Amino acid sequence: MSIRPLVIIPDSRLRLISDPIVRVDARVRAIVEDMFETMYDAPGIGLAAVQVGIPERIITVDVVRREEGEEEGAEEKKNPIALINPEIISSSEEISVYSEGCLSIPEYYADVERPARVKVRYMDLNGETQEIDADGLLATCVQHEIDHLNGVLFIDHISKLKRDRVMKKFTKIAKEKERDGV
After folding, report:
1. Which pLDDT tens digit goes with each residue over 3-61?
2. Are 96 and 116 contacting, i.e. CB atoms less than 8 angstroms apart?
């Protein structure tokens, strides 16, 4: 397992539509292991393969956190879920709003409206078709990551003015890093 470098906006790879996985094999399982390690290290609650430079339909999520009130340094609870070729097959009319962030857009958060509940069909690490009913933070996270597979970023769900400001800021940072040889 290894931590992979994150793809940060304005990198055009984040706008790629990811390719479906034909077969779940050792290569795919190794990518998933690296994605979990990268996601936990960041730290994040979700990651799409395209965010580590692999435009394939793989996402990892884990919205379980250490319980409030537990001592600092206590073992964090985990519930890692890998979804291969995930697709939303139904969603609620009810909407929820979460303040979303993204590992590919560091330190920027904005309120995003999404369906409160979704049903998702996907393949697990054994190549078996599964379905999951998600609500709350899990529903938001899964929708956010599936958006990545379709070249959509959470900032695409906010006003054009705010999105333009974010893109301008990160384009400037990228140019400065390029100029400084970082």
Report:
1. 999 999 999 999 999 999 999 999 999 999 999 999 999 999 999 999 999 999 999 99
2. yes
CA–CA dist 10, 31 (Å, integer): 23
Is residue 143 over pLDDT 70?
yes
CA separation (Å) from 158 to 100, 111, 149, 178? 11, 8, 19, 28
Annotated binding site: 102, 144, 148
Instruction: Tell me the binding residues for Fe cation.
Output: 102, 144, 148
Residue 69 clears pLDDT 50, i.e. is over it: no
Phi, psi for residue 90 in degrees, rounded to 5: -160, 155
Closest by Cα among 88, 110, 89 to 98: 110
β 117-123/81-91 pair status: antiparallel
CA angle 62, 63, 64 (to 5 degrees): 95
62 neighbors 155 (Cβ within 8 angstroms): no
- 12-66+73-179, which class in CATH? alpha beta
Q: Tell me, what's the pLDDT at 6?
A: 98
38 and 6 Cβ atoms separated by less than 8 Å: yes
Name the pTM for this structure: 0.92
Q: Kindly list the catalytic residues.
A: 145
Query: What are the boundaries of each domain within the chain?
Result: 12-66+73-179
Over the stretch 162-175, which tens digit does the pLDDT of each residue have?
999 999 999 999 99
